[in-house]
Design goal:
CATH class of the largest domain: Alpha Beta
Low-confidence stretches: 1-6, 12-46, 155-168, 348-365, 885-890, 909-918
Number of strands: 31
Distance between the termini: 70 Å
Oligomer: single chain
């Protein structure tokens, strides 16, 4: 980053107070709920700027700002001069601080200037890119009002026809949205009369750049706005976008000024380099400390874990005393269960008006809605509109509403279990109080004692200004290969040297070697793939350049563009209308009459057909569909704080319980009930086993179902723990020649030996060593299905194995079979094959955390303690039941944890009973 830092300039005058870490200490309420007072350091007036910042805009735009806006915000004060000067800049500020308007005000000012000079040609001058289609439609809708009021509203159709004939210049600005949902007629109109502001997604931009007709409309582009940069920078979709921006820079006639909009994220210099590339300057408008948040923690249970019904009841009660609220869950199936349970608690059984608006999809009070990505888009849009209109009081959602889709004013946010990180917590809570100066209010509803600890540690990290750093994937070769095919669509020829030059301009590819480009060109031309060479040939390659092979190959690019994993789903229909999608694997287990949850209500299966399941509303106990998703783990910084909390409580319990409780209240802002839960939890762990620390973990040995099980309490976060588990499994195999079963979560992992196979304590203690780490990890991965399974996704992105062909989606089974056969053949013949190397990089760096795991092992100061507790220790509960994490079996998980908890209590109480009897 040294070179990048010289080109990145932080606009410190737009920061609030001291650097971010110092500011947030004042912004996060760590007081108990009974102590509601604004921190003295936070001055809400400093979140605003004088109205004079609008003076540099076009008079019509400035007049609208003075009339409609109560005040200017600091993001606007930083963005307006930078935008008018056509500089690259990144705005980082919480949701509801006016950053979207800040990006568009200079654009609209320039449109008005062009209009006055009679230079408003029918050309696209600004491009807006967002990760969500819905966000693009929202922004376009929200632009219409200001543009109309500013005098930028277009004239009647008679003038539009004259403009198309080229008789006059345009006098009014226009916007347009180009996504996969845009009708063909609208796309044709955009080519003949391009909108001045075009809103799109990364995937649609990839298609437009590969087509000569669209590239011509983009030649006059001056500004590109990237919204929700934080949601793109850390994944392959962002890597694809960074390459597309470099390609776009080659297409336009003048240097683009790039504008990035991001919620709270860190480090800003890295995100800024992602936005502008490696060779351009960027200014940073750092306004991360603009909003005050109040984050509370509530534990609605008396034992070790909260039953689902109790969690839903708590969420229901906390949402009833406010006008609008969001309830976030971490998985879609849990959102379904929570929404269903909350609806059953509603006093009013039916709201006719709202139910009719939602087309009868709910037979109970529709003031409680549900929103997640498996629901039909039309259903999600109606829920968003009903929430904006005040017809819904509460919406239960997964991460689908984390980003800035317009849902109106939200008074309170509830988070079930925790958001698994500081940044997602800020993003979710930031949806409340969506306006400058408002306090964002959120409650984390803990499902068990680990949730309380995680929530408290999350609050502490935020207060200390500690955020998980964005990790940008480095040179993903599957993304590179897809981009290369787009470059040569329709028989174009591109030199390898030019490809390297363009790609190295993108932050994610700054270290790209020409040999990697050469290897990608070889496999895209069919070389080295085996008997399928002719079938997988996507382009031509002559050693110096690549070239296109015609329309048929380009069609494969257009149908398969993008990096989002494609799962096979089946449409669910009720009353002849699609309401959502469930996965094929779940459908295979369904029979006529079965009942399952979707859209928060119970449906009975009427008919299972090809590609669709027909259902009808019923009143019966439902099961919950399972949707594939990788369970997100806590970041390393949060795992460290969790460790500090647990060891801190353990140390203070040696003094007395009151000391530990006071420390939890003062440092972590926990109320007495939650603090006592934590103290009791740590005390039980100390009595049964031991509390691990950062320097020396604990290994507990048990006999479970007549098999030896070793539980490693490493508390290093899910990704590191899963990496360690695979390394240990490989070492166990080397010693005992036995395949083991693995389970991991954020707090540790367990290894279960085969029947009648055991290891002595000394060998278990020697498992956590950094020696031969890489060799053992790769050996552990080779004996699992992880590499093979993820090769399919890499091969899809790299266009080695297509997901769609001839206008239809190929069956997942066929795609998996094809990729599996190619994986086996290439693994044996060419371990350095580009997509095989990318699969290893994806698994070890993105899915797992090999560098973090090695760093953890190197940090250990002594061998772990190996213990044999009389019963499963409390810290073991979550690890043992982690494979039961999906809410489809949440009741079973609750029962198991309660049973384990009762056993612990029996072990603790039994010695006391014997003593008293004597």
């Amino acid at each position: 980053m040294a070179a990048a830092n010289s080109k990145v300039r932080r606009i410190n005058r737009f920061s609030i107070g001291r650097p971010f870490g110092s500011v947030l200490v004042a912004l996060v309420y760590l007081q108990r709920r009974t102590e509601v007072s604004r921190p003295a350091v936070f001055d809400v007036e400093r979140a605003f700027a004088p109205m004079s910042v609008f003076d540099s805009l076009h008079p019509d735009i400035a007049a609208w700002c003075r009339e409609r806006l109560e005040t200017a915000t600091l993001p606007q004060a930083g963005a307006i001069p930078a935008g008018l000067a056509r500089k690259n800049f990144l705005i980082c500020s919480p949701t509801g601080t006016g950053k979207t308007l800040a990006a568009f005000l200079p654009l609209m000012s320039r449109l008005a200037d062009r209009r006055d000079r009679d230079e408003l040609y029918p050309r696209t001058f600004a491009l807006y890119i967002s990760p969500l289609r819905a966000l693009g439609y929202d922004v376009e809708h929200n632009l219409r009002g200001p543009m109309r009021a500013m005098g930028l509203l277009e004239r009647p159709n008679s003038e539009r026809a004259a403009v198309r004939r080229g008789r006059i210049r345009e006098r009014f600005g226009r916007t347009g949205v180009r996504t996969g949902d845009t009708p063909r007629e609208e796309r044709r109109l955009m080519l003949s009369r391009p909108p001045h502001i075009l809103l799109t997604t990364p995937e649609s931009l990839a298609i437009m750049l590969a087509m000569d007709s669209y590239r011509r409309t983009l030649r006059h582009l001056e500004t590109v706005v990237i919204d929700e940069v934080h949601a793109l920078a850390g994944n392959k979709r962002g890597a694809q976008l960074s390459l597309l921006l470099e390609w776009l820079a080659e297409v336009v006639e003048r240097p683009l000024n790039r504008v990035g909009l991001s919620a709270t994220v860190s480090p800003l210099e890295r995100v800024a380099e992602f936005l502008v590339g490696t060779q351009r300057e960027c200014e940073i408008v750092d306004a991360r400390g603009l909003r005050s948040i109040r984050l509370e923690v509530e534990a609605p249970f008396g034992g070790a874990v909260a039953p689902l019904a109790k969690v839903a009841q708590t969420a229901y009660e906390r949402s009833r005393d406010v006008r609008t609220s969001l309830v976030f869950t971490n998985v879609r199936s849990q959102a379904e269960r929570i929404a269903h349970e909350m609806s059953l608690l509603e006093e009013r059984p039916h709201d006719v008006e709202v139910a009719e608006e939602l087309q009868g999809e709910r037979s109970y009070d529709s003031r409680i809605g549900i929103h997640h990505s498996a629901l039909e888009r039309s259903v999600r849009h109606r829920v968003e509109a009903a929430l904006r209109a005040g017809k819904l009081r509460t919406v239960v959602c997964s991460s689908s509403l984390e980003l800035g889709v317009d849902i109106g004013f939200i008074e309170r946010v509830l988070i079930i279990g925790g958001a698994r990180g500081m940044t997602p917590t800020l993003q979710r809570v930031g949806r409340a109080g969506h306006r400058p100066g408002a306090v964002a209010r959120g409650i984390i509803i803990a499902q068990d004692r680990d949730d309380i600890i995680e929530a408290a540690a999350t609050k502490r990290c935020i207060a200390d200004g500690i955020l998980e750093p964005v990790s940008i994937p480095q040179a993903p070769l599957d993304v590179l290969a897809q981009w290369m095919l787009g470059l040569v669509c329709y028989d174009k020829r591109v030199e390898l040297a030019q490809i390297v030059r363009l790609a190295q301009g993108a932050s994610a590819f700054k270290g790209l070697a020409i040999e990697d480009v050469r290897r990608c060109a070889e496999y895209l031309s069919g070389a080295g793939v085996g008997p399928d060479e002719a079938h997988v040939r996507r382009l031509g390659y002559d050693g110096d350049a690549v070239y296109g092979l015609g329309r048929e190959v380009c069609a494969a690019y257009f149908e398969n563009v993008g990096t989002i994993p494609d799962e096979e789903h089946v449409t669910v229909r009720a009353n002849s209308q699609p309401i959502g999608r469930i996965e094929q694997g779940f459908v295979n287990e369904l029979r006529t009459g079965d009942v399952f949850l979707l859209n928060g209500r119970a449906y009975g299966v009427k008919e299972i057909g090809h590609g669709a399941v027909t259902v009808e509303p019923v009143h019966a106990r439902p099961t919950v569909p399972q949707w594939s998703s990788h369970m997100k783990g806590v970041p390393a910084a949060l795992a460290r704080e969790i460790n500090l909390l647990r060891t801190g409580v353990a140390t203070r319990l040696l003094d007395r319980t009151a000391t530990a409780l006071r420390w939890l209240r003062e440092r972590y802002g926990l109320e007495d009930v939650e603090a006592r839960h934590v103290a009791r939890y740590i005390a039980q762990q100390q009595a049964i086993s031991a509390v691990p620390d950062l320097a020396r973990p604990v290994i507990e040995i048990y006999r479970m179902d007549k098999r030896q099980t070793a539980v490693f309490h490493t508390c290093a976060g899910r990704r590191v723990n899963e990496t360690l588990a695979r390394v240990v499994a490989a070492r166990v195999f080397d010693i005992a020649r036995a395949n083991t079963q693995l389970t991991s979560d954020d707090n540790g992992f367990l290894i279960t030996m085969p029947h009648r196979k055991t290891l002595p304590d000394a060998l278990w203690a020697g498992m956590l060593t950094p020696q031969n780490f890489e060799r053992d990890l790769m050996e552990g991965l080779r004996t699992s299905h992880l590499l093979r399974n993820h090769f399919r996704y890499v091969a899809n992105t790299g266009l080695l194995v297509l997901r769609r062909a001839g206008g239809r989606r190929l069956r997942r089974a066929a795609v998996s079979w094809n990729s599996g056969k190619i994986f086996e053949r290439i693994s044996a013949a060419d371990p350095q094959f580009p997509l095989l190397r990318e699969t290893v990089r994806t698994v070890t760096r993105d899915l797992l955390d090999a560098p973090g795991a090695l760093e953890y092992l190197e940090s250990l100061q002594s061998q772990p303690r190996v213990l044999h507790p009389a019963a499963a220790s409390p810290f073991t509960f979550g690890i043992v039941t982690s494979s039961f994490g999906d809410s489809v079996v949440l009741d079973d998980r609750t029962s198991m944890v309660e049973a384990l908890h009762e056993r612990v209590l029996d072990v603790l109480v039994e010695p006391l009973l014997k003593t008293s009897a004597q």
